[in-house]
Design goal:
The structure holds two protein chains of two kinds.
Chain A lengths: L11 H22 L8 E8 L2 E6 L4 H24 L6 H20 L3 H19 L6 H32 L4 H7 L5 H18 L8 H4 L5 H10 L4 H8 L1 H7 L1 H21 L5 H21 L3 H28 L17 H15 L5 H15 L3 H27 L6 H6 L5 H21 L8 H5 L13 H26 L15 H7 L4 H43 L11 H21 L1
Antiparallel strand pairs in A: 1-2
Helix pairs in contact in A: 1-2, 1-3, 2-3, 2-9, 2-14, 2-19, 3-4, 4-5, 5-7, 7-10, 7-11, 7-12, 9-14, 10-13, 12-13, 12-17, 13-14, 13-16, 13-17, 14-15, 14-16, 14-19, 15-17, 15-19, 16-17, 16-19, 16-21, 17-21
Chain B lengths: L3 H17 L6 H24 L9 E9 L4 E7 L1 H20 L8 H20 L3 H10 L1 H11 L4 H34 L6 H6 L6 H17 L8 H8 L2 H26 L1 H27 L4 H22 L2 H32 L10 H4 L1 H15 L5 H16 L1 H26 L16 H19 L2 H21 L6
The chains are: A mainly alpha, B mainly alpha.
């Protein structure tokens, strides 16, 4: 699977079937755990030192099964799409090698049977992300973004690593099974500390506040990479981790609360930025950050199945949106600027239809997958008594509906704004790229209806995961349920209609978009100036400190003291100048001779 | 297999004597001969690893011969699970270094290969000596070839660097010699047996107090300089920058480990009370070294200097692990010594390869190398990531175990040390980005040649071990576990009970 690199142009003949094979294997695994069984095979002992023992071992239960299907299924579709999208790239084979390495690492991440192995593949997917963001390494922005992603993730992993150490120090094991049964013996403050440190890692990997800044920059990578790694799979690893360790987070209580509020804050924060972006991929990137916030809000509320369900549906419609955007970019010869698009609906029919499905799925059109999964989260907030969270997430849903439809209108349905020359070259993408679009569009349409319809025993999806997550009996149905659905429909409609009024009736003036009109608008355009703040408060001071240490402190103080000692010795020896020859070998020999004399003296005593 | 250890130790020196008979003008024969001798030493050292009984804590392959009976000096060598790995690291790196210098050392080839082989004997001797006198002889003897390597084949400012290296080390060594003699006489006066035998001295307990503290400090000073522990590190960047590639690889790969090894073999067992008493000081210096080394690395303009300062950071981790006196910290520390030898050794090798082509090591002189030398860039990435401690590669195993050990001692200490892994990513990846990514910005870089078969042959073995230790570390940690456990038991058993 990892040797895609050696066969050049035909790399996809290995990479794509390999992914199909892993998908089939995942289906078999899925069938095996569908009854709710848990398997924990162990391969070999890995790091062993005294009573610290961790093995390369797997933990397979229905949650693993779901994650495997998403990773390999969406992964396969995106591999297929890549064969078309990356066709003319000189680094074709390198691309597939990295992409396969990613799917391998991500598969191992969800299969891992203990926290240390999770950490290993947690960093391994980060490495793939680094390599793929910087795939077009000759572009300085791409190289910069890759490095930024790695370092910001390292900040999160700093917490994650300490959490793992603390967990072991407290419980003496890192195996999932053993940890989750022993977790009730932990003092709650310890549980809180460990859970929050682990969550710090999740904030890095899943781009939550305040470690979200790397994800928008990660859009420098090829678009299928954005779809696979930075939307559908890797960035959801944090959600998976919290859901997987829910016993620990529940033991703490406070930690769950923190997860929920960080999720809500991120969901709103990123949505506001998504409202005004002009780069099609950046809109989607901030949308991803926001939707990840919804997932964290869900797991933070204890609605783990709802969070994972949103993870799944989001994987479908966001991968679809990114691939659709990729198809647009491909058709426009690399153009990503929404201001220079428009009128694509007549020229790229398949892309338009499928992307519209994706955007409506994201916006929450009743009947599509995203509607059901978001509704589950909102309902969980409402029924759990977290009215404030419910209201805030509803506001977020309004913004989601607005930016999704804004993207659709600007790219496809408004009048064309590109040059005649550019318009002439617009073309639909080849079948190898449109097939995955269709599959994902169908999934977006049916996934909700198939497994997401709420009942008094929870959705089918939640019942499937019941062996992993206890189902909280929620009183769905009746007037309250109707009210919740009505509210969701209202904010969806309001968002779409508002976007329609702003961008559809009159021809869009491209120069008016993306130019700050007032301070609030400028704040959003600049993503709340978080990057600038970090630069000012963290990067520059550290750089200045490093420079001071290297140029002044190390040379003048540390080495200066050493030289001063040397000078004192030399001055003291000034009287013995005649035997000073200036050759250090002489000094060395003299010292050796002195030492020998000393020995002789001591022995002769 | 009596005599095997002596054979591994003295084969390189004997080979060096033989090479003296080969005429100077036959440089090719000198190179091939030296490489064969080093490979033979490596082959001889493999049975040490394969035949090593991992379950036994004591010394193995021991040899004891009379040497100077009136002084209590014996020729006593042996290895335990700690020195085993360091001996192998030495015999593994030496042939690679000789192969790497095939074209870079054109001047005085004969002297060079002879010096390197004598150096190998000195290094192995340090790790196998179980007699303080013998140890000291090797310790000092090894200085002289290293002095020549830097001073003769080094860069423009080589004399300054060589003198600094020697004087700095000597300053520590002389204090250690005094402490060795003090220990010898104290032990002799107390037991009636005057001996330099390490196991005998380690079995004996010196009363806690001023004498023990002073002797600890004298030993610690010598070793801290060698490690180098902050703030005794300033000789290192100078030595590395001026040393030729083989010198840098051996210096970083093996010589620095003599400092950490000294702490393990002598300071901890001889002076358990002082080791515990000064533990917090060592922790503080180690953590400062981890963070400070990383900061200083970040802003270096010269790749070699960057790697040199990163050693201060990495060796800080080793010191931290050793002084946690936990099984995890010590096993992590030992494996991290090996890891640093491999990763940093490989970094210096690769910096040397690029220097041979461009005659500069300034980061600003590079950029866009992936386009020109993709194979070099890919291997450089693996080595860089190993140095950054990416899980799945060797560096992670050591660092993680050390930090687990540190966490048990003090969680804030562990947290402070863990920031080092963030900074490591900063300085290494930033350097990598500027050297390898981007467009080719200097015309001189456009025609660079990618790795030659000889260079592949040098790098692939290192990378095999980088991956091997990362994926299956138990093959190596398993050999040290018993020795480490015994060491901890010894220190804790010998230290006077302290009031909590």
């Amino acid at each position: 699977m990892l040797f895609g690199g050696v066969i050049g142009r035909r790399a996809h003949w290995i990479a794509v079937p390999a992914l199909f094979g892993s998908f089939l294997a995942s289906c078999i695994v899925f069938a095996g755990v569908a009854g709710g069984a848990t398997y924990t095979p162990t391969l070999f002992p890995w790091i062993v030192a005294g009573d610290f023992e961790t093995a390369v071992a797997a933990y397979v239960d229905p949650l693993t099964g779901v994650m495997l299907l998403v990773v390999t299924g969406v992964g396969f579709l995106i591999h297929l799409y890549s064969a078309g999208y990356m066709h003319d790239d000189p680094g074709y084979a390198r691309y597939f090698a990295y992409l396969n390495l990613f799917v391998f690492s991500m598969t191992m991440l969800v299969l891992a049977g203990n926290f240390l192995l999770l950490y290993v593949f947690w960093e391994a997917v980060g490495l793939c992300s680094y390599l793929l963001i910087g795939f077009w390494y000759t572009r300085p922005a791409a190289a910069q973004a890759g490095k930024k992603a790695f370092i910001v993730n390292r900040v999160g992993d700093f917490g994650f690593g300490l959490g793992v150490m603390w967990l072991w120090t407290a419980l003496g094991t890192l195996d999932y099974g053993a940890v989750f049964t022993a977790v009730d013996t932990l003092p709650t403050t310890t549980a809180t500390g460990i859970a929050l440190l682990l969550f710090m890692g999740a904030c890095g990997k899943s781009a939550q506040l305040p470690l979200h800044t790397w994800l928008p920059d990660a859009m420098e990578g090829p678009t299928p990479v954005s779809a696979l790694i930075h939307a559908a799979t890797m960035v959801t690893a944090g959600v998976y981790m919290v859901a997987r360790s829910h016993a620990l987070f529940e033991r703490s209580g406070v930690a769950l609360e923190v997860v929920a509020w960080v999720g809500v804050a991120t969901a709103l924060f990123a949505a506001t930025i998504g409202l005004v972006q002009t780069d099609i991929k950046r809109v989607l990137a901030y949308s991803t950050v926001s939707q990840l916030g919804y997932m964290f809000a869900a797991v933070g509320l204890g609605a783990y199945a709802a969070g994972i369900f949103h993870l799944v549906t989001h994987a479908f419609f966001k991968a679809l949106l990114f691939l659709g955007a990729g198809s647009v970019i491909h058709g426009l010869g690399g153009q990503q600027d929404l201001r220079k698009m428009g009128g694509l609906s007549s020229r790229m029919v398949t892309t338009t239809i499928t992307t519209t499905v994706g955007a409506l799925g994201l916006a929450g059109l009743p009947g599509l997958a995203g509607f059901f999964s978001k509704d589950e989260i909102l309902a969980a907030a409402f029924h759990g008594g977290h009215r404030a969270i419910w209201a805030l997430l509803l506001v977020g849903a309004f913004m989601t509906a607005f930016y999704s439809s804004r993207l659709l209108f600007l790219a496809f349905y408004s009048g064309p704004r590109m040059t005649k020359e550019a318009a002439h070259h617009v073309h639909e993408s080849p079948g190898v790229m449109t097939l995955p679009l269709w599959v994902l569009a169908i999934l977006t349409v049916v996934a909700g209806v198939a497994v997401g319809i709420p009942s008094e025993h929870g959705t089918r999806f939640a019942r499937f995961l019941a062996p992993v997550f206890p189902v909280h009996e929620v009183a769905h149905g009746g007037g309250v349920a109707m009210m919740l659905i009505a509210m969701a429909v209202i904010v969806f409609t309001a968002g779409v209609v508002l976007a329609w009024f702003l961008y559809m009736p009159a021809p869009v003036r491209a120069e008016a978009i993306g130019r700050p009109r007032n301070p609030v608008h400028a704040l959003l355009l600049n993503a709340w100036y978080v990057d600038a703040l970090y630069d000012l408060a963290v990067v520059r001071p550290l750089f200045a400190l490093s420079t001071f240490c290297a140029r002044s402190f190390d040379v003048k103080v540390v080495d200066g003291l050493v030289n001063a000692v040397g000078r004192v010795v030399v001055a003291g020896a000034a009287g013995l100048r005649q035997i000073q020859t200036g050759y250090s070998v002489n000094y060395a020999l003299t010292m050796l001779a002195g030492a020998v004399l000393l020995v002789a003296f001591l022995l002769a005593r | 297999m009596t005599g095997l250890l002596s054979a591994v130790t003295f084969l390189p020196a004997a080979g060096a004597l033989a090479l003296l008979l080969v005429p100077r003008r036959m440089a090719g024969a000198q190179r091939v001969g030296a490489l064969l001798i080093a490979l033979a030493a490596l082959a001889l050292s493999l049975p040490l690893f394969l035949g090593f009984d991992a379950d036994a804590a004591g010394y193995q392959f021991e040899e004891v011969r009379r040497w100077m009976p009136t002084l209590g000096v014996t020729y006593h060598v042996g290895i335990d699970g700690i020195s085993l790995l360091l001996v192998l690291l030495t015999t593994f790196l030496t042939p690679l270094v000789l192969a790497s210098a095939w074209h870079s050392i054109e001047d005085r080839v004969k002297e060079f290969v002879v010096t390197m082989l004598i150096l190998e004997t000195g290094m192995v001797g340090v790790f196998v000596s179980l007699d303080l006198f013998l140890f000291y002889v090797f310790w000092e003897a090894m200085l002289i070839p290293m002095y020549f390597v830097i001073g003769v084949w080094g860069g423009a400012n080589r004399i300054y660097a060589a003198v600094k290296f020697v004087l700095y080390t000597m300053a520590g060594s002389v204090l250690m010699l005094v402490a060795i003699l003090a220990l010898y006489f104290q032990h002799g006066a107390a037991t009636g047996t005057y001996t330099f035998d390490v196991p005998a001295l380690a079995r004996w307990v010196l009363a806690p107090g001023l004498a023990q503290n002073l002797m600890f400090l004298a030993f610690a000073f010598a070793f801290a300089i060698k490690v180098p522990l902050f703030p005794f590190h300033t000789w290192l960047p100078d030595a590395h920058v001026e040393a030729p590639t083989p010198g840098s690889v051996i210096l970083a790969g093996v010589l620095l480990k003599m400092g950490t090894y000294g702490f393990l073999r002598f300071c901890l067992p001889f002076f358990p009370d002082a080791s515990l008493a000064f533990g917090p000081l060592v922790f503080a210096l180690a953590v400062i070294g981890i963070v400070y080394g990383a900061w200083v690395s970040t802003v270096q303009a010269d790749i070699k200097k960057l790697v040199a300062y990163s050693s201060v950071s990495h060796l800080g981790f080793v010191m931290l692990g050793i002084f946690t006196l936990t099984q995890q910290g010590l096993v992590g520390g030992v494996i991290q010594m090996v890891n640093h030898g491999l990763s940093t050794g490989a970094l210096f090798l690769m910096v040397g390869m690029i220097y041979e082509r461009r005659h500069t090591r300034l980061i600003a002189e590079f950029g866009g190398l992936w386009k020109v030398v993709p194979a070099f860039s890919a291997l450089f990435l693996v080595v860089t990531l190993s140095s950054v401690g990416l899980p799945g590669l060797n560096g992670f195993v050591g660092e993680f175990l050390i930090l687990v050990g540190a966490f048990q001692v003090n969680r804030w200490l562990a947290a402070a040390a863990t920031t080092g892994i963030i900074f490591a990513a900063v300085y290494m990846l930033w350097m990598y980005q500027r050297v390898i990514f981007g467009e080719v910005t200097h015309e001189a870089n456009r025609g660079l040649r990618d790795l030659t078969p000889r260079e592949w042959a040098v790098l692939v073995p290192v990378i095999v071990f980088i991956v091997w230790i990362g994926v299956y570390p138990a093959a190596f940690t398993g050999k040290t576990e018993a020795s480490v456990e015994a060491l901890i038991a010894q220190v804790q058993g010998k230290a006077s009970p302290r009031s909590p």
